[in-house]
Amino acid sequence: MRCVTEKSEDKIKEAARRVFLKKGFDGTTSRDIAREADMNIALTNYYFRSKEKLFLEIFKDVLDEYIKDMLEILNRPIGLKEKISEMIENDFRMMKTEPDLIIFIMNEVHKEPDRLFSDNSICRLLESSLFVKQLDEGIANGTVRPIRMENILPLMKGCIEFIYVGKHIHKNLFNLNDDEFEKYAQEQKEHVKAMVCNYLMLKD
Amino acid sequence: MRCVTEKSEDKIKEAARRVFLKKGFDGTTSRDIAREADMNIALTNYYFRSKEKLFLEIFKDVLDEYIKDMLEILNRPIGLKEKISEMIENDFRMMKTEPDLIIFIMNEVHKEPDRLFSDNSICRLLESSLFVKQLDEGIANGTVRPIRMENILPLMKGCIEFIYVGKHIHKNLFNLNDDEFEKYAQEQKEHVKAMVCNYLMLKD
DNA sequence: GACCATTTTAAATGGTTGTTTAAATTATTC
DNA sequence: GAATAATTTAAACAACCATTTAAAATGGTC
Questions:
Q1: Class level of CATH domain B59-200
Q2: SS3 content of chain A, % helix, strand, coil (to 5)
Q3: Which of residues 16-35 of A touch B (CB under 8 A)?
Q4: Given 1.10.10.410, 1.10.820.10, 3.40.1010.10, 1.10.10.60, which CATH number is that of B1-49?
């Protein structure tokens, strides 16, 4: 049975995740991780063999986390409009609880594209989702604008994740403090919801 | 006209820009830059005093480049709808010619927010742009949805820059090769144009 | 061609990197 | 409680880092 004190391996992994997300792979040293985990430097390699191996484990987790919620919502048995609203709300929630997640993924993949598994399992999960079925049905009966899932998803996620990925830039560009930025992000959320629904749904 | 043999200082700066944009500040070594510029390592410090100073010079240039075109279009004497179209086309052009630019800025600012000059000169330039005047006029006479410049700009730029910032992710997620991605990006461009205009312009 | 400032070079600086070692400590098994 | 295995430690490793040095090469001026 697990006791109150965490296993060293987990402590290191969690500490490493925190540091990697903040500083990226290149900006993080083994000593940073050891210090954050309050453990001896050698333990990183004792448990994970190398900084790279530890990183890849964490990167895989982070990527799964990013996609898991999205897939769950795409398959939820609710209407299209509500689904879009949920997707956007979920994105906002994620950006607030894990503000470093997106820029971390984007940047690491940008520097080393091969870190993305080359299998297309997620691709197939997306294509076979309930969301795609709903989209195709709506298009067939004329209630939905002809558009593919590949195009509509970034229209939702892009607008939201973009302002958080470039949070400091937008704070500076629009002269906002932290509170004002959050209010601004809320406004933006409602605009995105309205705009995407407005564009997707055809009324006749 | 340009001399045949470039000045060493410029050669180093251009080489450094290329490497920094690809690998980021942390991922770039002085030796990387020297190798790319085909020059001795000591010259980087001879001309720029330090890697940090060289980086800051380049970063300032890159940031200006990102904002200059946008401001010019915002002040161009053309109609709102055409202006939005031009903004989006310009964004696409930039993402194609300098695909690493946005993720580079985003990531460096994310890691070191103070690298952004704290003055709000750009902020004031945005607020006093012709675009804002046109927006306010349209809102006043009921042809444009009540929305602020801060909200509408990321609705345009976010959708487009997002798919390029996460190009490899989207290529993998949607199972696209390079050609297919460019076709996909073109589709996306048209969707964004239509969606934003559709949302912004009120017809009655 | 001697003089001087500028530019370029190879080599070295001290510090940090990821990783390893071998000894010390703790936990587990009988 | 001795023997064995698992964990943790301090120290060291070679490789690489940004930067500096001092000498060499270059170019222009008189």
A1: mainly alpha
A2: 75, 0, 25
A3: 22-24, 26-27
A4: 1.10.10.60
| Nearest-CB residue to A151 (from B122, B151, B191) | B191
Question: From the CA of A105, how many Å to the nearest CA of chain B?
Answer: 9
- Residue-level pLDDT at A3: 38
Query: What pLDDT sits at residue A203?
Result: 76
Cα B147 from Cα B165, distance rounded (Å) = 26
Q: Closest Cα of chain B to A125: distance in Å?
A: 10
B42 touches strand D (CB under 7 A): yes
Q: DSSP per residue over A47-116, as a string?
A: HHSSHHHHHHHHHHHHHHHHHHHHHHHHTSSS-HHHHHHHHHHHHHHHHHH-TTHHHHHHHHHHH-GGGS
What are the boundaries of each domain within chain B?
A: 1-49, 59-200
Whether the pLDDT of residue A174 is over 70: the answer is yes
Which nucleotides along chain D are within 7 A of a protein C-beta? Answer: 7-12, 16-22
In CATH, A67-200 is 1.10.287: no
Reported as a single tens digit per residue, the pLDDT across B50-107 is 999 999 999 999 999 999 999 999 999 999 999 999 999 999 999 999 999 999 999 9
- Residues 6 or more apart whose CB falls under 8 angstroms from that of B17 comprise B58, B61, B62
Averaged pLDDT, B142-147: 97
In this structure, what token pair is assigned to residue A172? Answer: 């500076």
Chain A CB contacts of B109 under 8 Å are 166, 168-169
Decide if B116 and A175 are in contact by the 8 Å CB cutoff.
no
pLDDT tens per residue, range A20-72? 999 999 999 999 999 999 999 999 999 999 999 999 999 999 999 999 999 99
Q: What is the mean pLDDT of residues A93-114?
A: 94
Banded model confidence at residue A116, pLDDT cuts 50, 70, 90: confident
Residue of B159, B160, B177, B203 to mutate when probing chain A, most A C-beta within 10 A: B159
Mutate: best of A110, A151, A152, A173, partner B, most B CBs <10 A: A110
CB atoms within 10 A of CB B121: 8
